[in-house]
Structure formats: structure tokens, C-alpha cells
Design brief:
The structure holds 2 protein chains of 2 kinds. Chain A is mainly alpha-helical. Chain A is globular. Helices cover 27% and strands 30% of the residues of chain B. Chain B is built from 14 helices and 25 strands. An 8-stranded mixed β-sheet of chain B has the order 2-1-10-9-11-12-13-14, sandwiched between helices. A 7-stranded mixed β-sheet of chain B has the order 6-5-3-4-7-8-18, with helices on both faces. Chain B has a 5-stranded antiparallel β-sheet with strand order 15-20-19-17-16, with no helix packed on it. Chain B is globular. Classes of the chains: A mainly alpha, B alpha/beta. Chains A and B meet through helix 2 of A and helix 10, helix 11, strand 23 and helix 14 of B.
């Protein structure tokens, strides 16, 4: 899951014309400081939905927004489990 | 013809204890007394604007906040000019009969210019419109709508004693409907208004709100979602949370109540065309079906016609100056919002026109389609809204490729088409998702089929 998210993260960076690519993202990376803006996150979530067929943030139960990359990955992993 | 007595901001300002703080900037504060004194000085300095129709252009939010009561005290009509009509300025001035243009910046009046404009005497004499705002019209072209001050404050809480308990944060510009309402609410109830500067990250915004103890905030769902991603957002001591300007879905309402369990959370349905709409306070998306038949006391009446919401407001916009309004024989205004009924709730689906709301930015599918179809790789395109949990909607496209497009891998094709769009479209207009399809359906008249709710 982490690998897919990393790949799509880079794709979203590219799609928003951000001159940055990650080989790895640490769990405590603050999302709002990662280089992706709101539009970038929106695209990331859409790309992941295209790939995984779900968007954990559309589901109303336990609605929580992630602040770090680790939390973001955990939300996708928990949804899968 | 009966004209409404000119209600002015200063009439409300004088009722507030003068030592209360009104505007809190990053490094400066203005009490109600300060603003009141400024009104007197301004009157001495600029007598030429008395009873004139004025446009205000402000380089920053702070200057407009400081000077609006002083200008309002003298002018007949105020056009709060947004930043995005630059090329069509003259046309708008003409429609709104603007005589004077006031430029503000850096906490000062920069210039007051008389502009040559043929004032249509008849209109100028018979109407008393306090405020003219630009609304993003359904075609993507801004429209001008006028409001009286009375209509703008009709739903404001007017309790001055309790006003000291509230500290509002500004998250919209004051030259927009939603921002003006927050600004006026602070004045009417004698509450403080914290105005962060327009620059700065979400993190510094959150810290600014926290330091200044902001406890009331009104913003779009997209703004709230971004704020909930800021690590220290829970430190803001929010008591009152308002959402508006986009569809509020259940996810954001629930996420907000998780982060701020003590806060009142209300989402507002307002169509700029109809003036203030109504508030929903039960933290559930959409609104109760019984709002439709008017069985509860609402300040407006609602009805549904062909899956579209129509609204009749008692304190709506006085008049549409530029652009037509779709009004039926009974006085209901077509909101252009598509709805569906699910159980006992009415849920919003999007715009009848097919326009896509990307985090508050309006995107017209036809425009994006024509850009896509200009690309060598694209034969035909259909653009539509894709629901998105971060920005409400994103632009999505189905494309039929030309032979050159078909020769590329998916990844290459997407990269090239997006690069092509980037030179021609705003970032939020560029399709986030591109799907290749073999054909795009058209109806009997050869038009692409859109929006079947």
C-alpha cells in the first residue's frame, strides 16, 4: 500500500507541476509541508481511488483528516483491512 | 416609488461600547472608537463622494475593513470590486452607474478618482442600493447583484451584550458575499474580527487564529478540510463553525465535530442570487425534506421543480443589475442547484449547468473540452465533475484519442495532454483524471449528454 501511495504521490506532484519527487517519505512528514497543495491532495485521493476503487475520506464513519504522511498511509491500510 | 431609508453601518457602529476591539490585525488593533473617528476624518477629507456611487478597489483586506464604514457613511452605492474583473472594469462601472473609484492600500486611501460615466439618471434616482457585489454567475461570467444593508444583516445575531463573547476570524475576502456577511456580523453584535493577512501558510493561519483566540469561523468545506490537515488545528478554541459556498458532505461535518466536539456546526445554503438562504444545524448533510413545504419557520420558501431547487427569499438581493435571473410567476428564483431526495433529506448533487465547483472555483466543462479537443492527441472530449473528498469536485474527462494519441502509452498520453492544458487553463481547470474511451455519447441533437441526476 505504501508503495502505491508513494507512486501516486509523485504522480500528483508531477500533475500539479511541482518540481519535486520523493524516493521515500518519512511517517512524520507534515502533509501540508510536503509540496502538495489542496489541489494536489485532491488529485492524489482521486488517483488512489482510480487505482484502489475506494476513497476512505468519502466514508462518513470515523471521519478524520491526516496531518502526517504516516497517518495518511494508515487510513488507507486500515480501510483495506 | 417608495425607497428604503438608507441604513448605514455607522448607525450600528455607534451602538457598540467604544472601547471594544473591532479589528485585530497581525500587529495592530482598531477599537470601535478608532473606526468611528476615522469616519469623521474621512467625511472632512472627502466631501466629494457624498451621495455618489463608488467602486472600492483595495490592495489588501485590512484597508477595506478599516475604511468600509467611513465610505459607507457618505456614498450612495458601494461596489466592492473583486480582483478578477480587471479587463471588464469599464463595463461593470457602466452597469452599476459608478461615478467615483476609491483605491485603498496599506491602511490608507491611495486615490479617489472621478470617472466619466453616463449615469442613467432614472435608475440612480429610483433605487437605493447600498452594496453591489460580483457573483460568479452560472455561465462562469461574473454578474452584479445589489443588496441593501438591511438585507445583508437580516439574519445576523444582533445581541450586543453577548457580542463580546465572540471573536470572528475572517477567511473570505470582504468584497465577497460570505466575507462581507462575517464583517457585518462582527459590527452588528460588537464582536472582534481577526483579519489574517492574505499571505502565509495554513499553519501560520491556524497559529494566528489560536493566538487571537478566534472562536467563530465561517469558511468553505474545502477550506475546513485543509485546516483539519494542519497539525495544531485543534488548538483553535472554536465555539461556532459555519460552512458555506460549496456542498457540505457528511464526511466534513463529522470530521469537524470529531475535532471540535463542543462547537455548534452549521452549514449554510445560500444562493448569491437569492440573498441569504437558510442554515442547517443538525450536523447532517443536505437539509430536512420538511423545509420544502414550509412547515417550519424559514425566512425563505423552497420548492423543487425538475430536480432543481427554487427559492423565494424575503430578504434577498434587491435586484440583479447585470445578467438575467430566472424567476417564475410566484416569485421563486431558480438556484440552478440539482438535488435528490433520499429518505427524509434533500441532498445537493451539483449545478444544473454542469459547471464544476473545484474548491470554490468554477469550471465550465465546455471550455475544458474545447481546449482538450485542440490537442493533436484528442479527437473528442467530455468533461464532468468527479466527486472528491478534498475539494468537493475535481475535473474529470473522457477522451477519444486520435491516431497520434493512440500511439502513446497511457502515461505518456496523460503527461502530454496535461502539459498542453497547462499552457491554456488554470490549474484547477486541468482534468485530474483522463480516461480513454472509444466513443462519447451524444443526444439526438448531437450534443454531449450531461448531468442526468
Amino acid at each position: 500500500m505504501r508503495k502505491i501511495i508513494l507512486e501516486k504521490f509523485n504522480e500528483a506532484l508531477e500533475q500539479t507541476d511541482t518540481d519535486k519527487q520523493y524516493k521515500n517519505i518519512s511517517d512524520d512528514q507534515i502533509l501540508l509541508e510536503s509540496g502538495l497543495d489542496s489541489l494536489g491532495f485532491a488529485i492524489l485521493v482521486a488517483l488512489l481511488e482510480e487505482e484502489l476503487d475506494f476513497d476512505p475520506f468519502q466514508e462518513a464513519e470515523d471521519a478524520v483528516y491526516p496531518t502526517t504522511f504516516g497517518e495518511f498511509v494508515a487510513i488507507y491500510e486500515n480501510r483495506k483491512a | 416609488m417608495k425607497t428604503e431609508k438608507h441604513n448605514r453601518i455607522i448607525n450600528h457602529l455607534v451602538k457598540i461600547p467604544r472601547d471594544r476591539v473591532f479589528i485585530a490585525l497581525q500587529d495592530d488593533i482598531y477599537t470601535f472608537e478608532d473606526i468611528h473617528s476615522l469616519c469623521s476624518e474621512f467625511k472632512t477629507d472627502y466631501p466629494e463622494i457624498i451621495d455618489k456611487n463608488c467602486a472600492i478597489i483595495s490592495e489588501d483586506r485590512e484597508s477595506l475593513a478599516i475604511y468600509l464604514p467611513a465610505i459607507d457613511n457618505l456614498c450612495k452605492t458601494i461596489f466592492l470590486q473583486p480582483d478578477d474583473i480587471k479587463t471588464r472594469e469599464r463595463e461593470f462601472y457602466h452597469s452599476a452607474n459608478i461615478e467615483i473609484v476609491i483605491k485603498l492600500g496599506n491602511g490608507k486611501v491611495l486615490s479617489v478618482d472621478n470617472i466619466a460615466c453616463n449615469v442613467t439618471q432614472q435608475i440612480a434616482e429610483t433605487k437605493c442600493n447600498d452594496y453591489i457585489l460580483a457573483t460568479s454567475g452560472t455561465t462562469g461570467e461574473p454578474k452584479l447583484a445589489s443588496y441593501t444593508l438591511s438585507s445583508l444583516i437580516a439574519t445576523a445575531n444582533k445581541n450586543i451584550d453577548r457580542g463580546t463573547e465572540f471573536i470572528w476570524g475572517l477567511s473570505y475576502d470582504i468584497n465577497r458575499f460570505a466575507g462581507l456577511q462575517v464583517y457585518l456580523q462582527s459590527i452588528i453584535s460588537g464582536s472582534s474580527l481577526v483579519i489574517p493577512s492574505r499571505t502565509g501558510s495554513m499553519d501560520s493561519l491556524v497559529n494566528g487564529y489560536t493566538e487571537k483566540s478566534v472562536n467563530c469561523l465561517s469558511a468553505t468545506p474545502s477550506f475546513w478540510r485543509k485546516m483539519l490537515m494542519a497539525p495544531h488545528h485543534k488548538n483553535i478554541p472554536l465555539k461556532q463553525i459555519t460552512l458555506g459556498g460549496e456542498i457540505s458532505n457528511q464526511n466534513i461535518l463529522t470530521a469537524l465535530s470529531n475535532s471540535y466536539p463542543e462547537a455548534n456546526i452549521i452549514h449554510i445554503y445560500a444562493s448569491t442570487e437569492a440573498g441569504v438562504g437558510f442554515a442547517v444545524k443538525d450536523k447532517k448533510e443536505g437539509f430536512p425534506l420538511d423545509y420544502i413545504d414550509g412547515s417550519i419557520n424559514q425566512k425563505c420558501q423552497l420548492k423543487i421543480k425538475d430536480n432543481v431547487l427554487w427559492i423565494k427569499s424575503n430578504h434577498g438581493c434587491t435586484n440583479f443589475i447585470k445578467g438575467n435571473l430566472d424567476v417564475d410567476n410566484n416569485g421563486y428564483i431558480n438556484t440552478g442547484d440539482l438535488i435528490k431526495i433520499k429518505n427524509d433529506r434533500v441532498l445537493f448533487l451539483g449545478r444544473e449547468s454542469g459547471s464544476i465547483n473545484v474548491g470554490g472555483n468554477k469550471v465550465m466543462p465546455e471550455k475544458v473540452e474545447s481546449v482538450l479537443e485542440d490537442s493533436n492527441h484528442v479527437h473528442m472530449a467530455k468533461v464532468f465533475a468527479k466527486n472528491n473528498s478534498v475539494l468537493g469536485s475535481l475535473v474529470s474527462a473522457e477522451i477519444v484519442l486520435t491516431d497520434s494519441g493512440k500511439a502513446l502509452t497511457n502515461k505518456e498520453m496523460k503527461a502530454e495532454v496535461i502539459a498542453f492544458c497547462r499552457k491554456r487553463l488554470e490549474s484547477f481547470e486541468i482534468p485530474a483524471l483522463l480516461k480513454r474511451v472509444d466513443m462519447i455519447q451524444t443526444n439526438a441533437t448531437g450534443k454531449k449528454i450531461r448531468n442526468t441526476p
